[in-house]
Design a protein that fits this description.
By secondary structure, the protein is an alpha/beta fold. It has two domains: about 160 residues, 2-Layer Sandwich (VC0802-like); about 210 residues, HUPs (Rossmann fold, 3-Layer(aba) Sandwich), CATH 3.40.50.620. About 40% of the residues lie in helices and about 20% in strands. It is built from 14 helices and 15 strands. The strands form two sheets. Strands 1, 2, 3, 4, 5, 6, 7, 8 and 9 form a nine-stranded mixed beta sheet that branches. Strand 2 and strand 3 form a beta hairpin. It starts with a strand and ends with a strand. Bound molecules: adenosine-5'-triphosphate (ATP) and magnesium ion (MG). The site of magnesium ion has 4 residues, from loops.
Length: about 400
């Protein structure tokens, strides 16, 4: 079947008045971002619905993939349209729709008619009954079941007539751009891309920051993070990715502070730098991929010490997930294969053999005093030399 249009459904809970308009506008923007690379589509809002219409050729599977990733879409239906708003063409198209959309024409069905245009001369029930009759005449294997049909065939009579029955799942959530901004600490691992995805799904626009340590970390490790950001941006929209050279700061911590406290002190400086760029981008929170107890730097005591380094709230959507649950999400969103590429991360290179698992904030702060003379200058240099890349999917 040549589907020329799609009906987009979204969850409407809490969407009233001004909020609804904002939600819909953001959804249209995000849909354009996702589907414009697939073909020429117009998107329009019409009394609580959104339609995407194709002008010219497009690849159906590519379009389905694109729409399945747009946050805010709860489901979407490929539809056929009838321009001529009278019964005969509607009945004919309904038959053609079933002919082309179902290989096995052996199922129970119910026709549902919605009449947005009240000037249409027949009542909804009359249209449903008459179209049902036509389908029964044409296809032997079809039977009507008004209580529990296998197929609901919907006919909407509006400015044009829309016919559809299939409903494909969207990701749910809220359109990106409706809920502020967050700065994601994006490493090359499995967890942080998942964390970014989960927060973006609630409508938060992402920025990201990556800390690398050349020459200890390679160009390939950097490229891997760019690739991950690009995959996340398929759903999250464009991302400003800040790439911070962390080598000098790490070396300084390594030389001056106790080695069992390295990771925690390093993470505190990462939070400070992330917060700086969050300020520039107007972000209201930091986002990390941490999960309680996963490693020494993610115990309750370590997380407490990390949080102390910054003022913004830190969102950790993976906090209560087991590793296998995080992996399941990463497989679903398509980041897993890239995340497991074996390039070294700055944290793994400077890591101590026996890191503290229950750091005390006063002890950590005392160790940090050893950096007093040098750290401000090193931080300033790192900030000044940071590179920003605009990521598009
Ligand atoms: P991930 O799988 O996301 O790399 P992880 O299990 O390796 O996580 P850690 O290395 O302790 O855990 O890092 C915890 C979190 O800190 C990460 O999820 C990420 O948000 C942030 N982070 C760690 N290293 C970096 C880095 N090099 N650049 C940016 N953020 C980082
Ligand atoms: Mg990591």
């Amino acid at each position: 079947m040549d589907y020329r249009a799609f009906l987009i459904k979204y969850a409407e809970i809490g969407l009233k008045g001004k909020n609804r308009g904002r939600f819909e506008d953001a959804l249209v923007t995000q849909m354009h971002f996702a589907i414009d690379p697939v073909g020429d589509f117009s998107i329009r809002k019409e009394s609580g619905r959104i339609f995407a219409e194709a002008h010219g050729d497009y690849d159906y599977d590519d379009l389905v993939t694109a729409l399945s990733g747009v946050f805010g879409i709860s489901s979407f239906c490929p539809i056929v349209t009838v321009e001529d708003k009278s019964f005969e063409p509607i009945a004919r198209m309904a038959c053609e729709y079933v002919e082309n959309s179902y290989e096995d024409k052996n199922f129970s069905f119910k026709v549902m008619v919605r009449r947005g245009d009240k000037s249409f001369p027949m009542q909804s029930m009359e249209v449903a009954a008459a179209v049902g009759e036509r389908l029964l005449e044409r296809f032997e294997g079809l039977r009507v079941d008004v209580h529990d049909p296998e197929v609901y065939l919907t006919i909407e009579i509006r400015d044009k007539v829309y016919i559809y029955s299939r409903e494909l799942p969207g990701p749910g959530g809220m359109p990106v751009g409706t809920n502020g901004r967050g700065m994601l600490l994006l490493s090359g691992g499995i967890d942080s891309p998942v964390a970014g995805y989960m927060i973006a799904k609630r409508g938060v626009r992402l920025c990201a920051v990556y800390f690398h340590a050349p020459p200890y970390t390679s160009e390939r490790a950097r490229q891997k993070v760019i690739d991950l950001a690009r995959i996340v941006s398929r759903s999250a929209g464009p991302i400003h990715l800040y790439i911070v050279n962390f080598t000098d700061i790490q070396m300084e911590i390594y030389q001056k502070c106790p080695h069992d406290e390295l990771t925690i002190i390093m993470r505190r400086y990462m939070m400070k730098i992330a917060e700086h760029f969050a300020g520039l981008e107007g972000c209201q929170a930091l986002i990390t991929g941490e999960s309680i107890g996963q490693v020494a730097s993610q115990t309750m005591q370590s997380l407490f010490c990390t949080d102390d380094a910054c003022n913004l709230p830190v969102f950790r959507p993976c906090i209560g997930l087991d590793k296998n649950e995080i992996i399941a999400v990463s497989e679903k969103i398509g980041t897993y294969e890239t995340s497991i590429l074996p390039y070294e991360d700055c944290c793994t290179i400077f890591v101590a053999k026996h890191p503290v698992t229950k750091p005390r904030l006063d002890v950590i702060k005392k160790s940090e005093r050893k950096l007093a003379d040098t750290i401000d200058g090193l931080m300033e240099k790192a900030l000044a030399e940071t590179e920003m890349i605009k990521i598009h999917s």
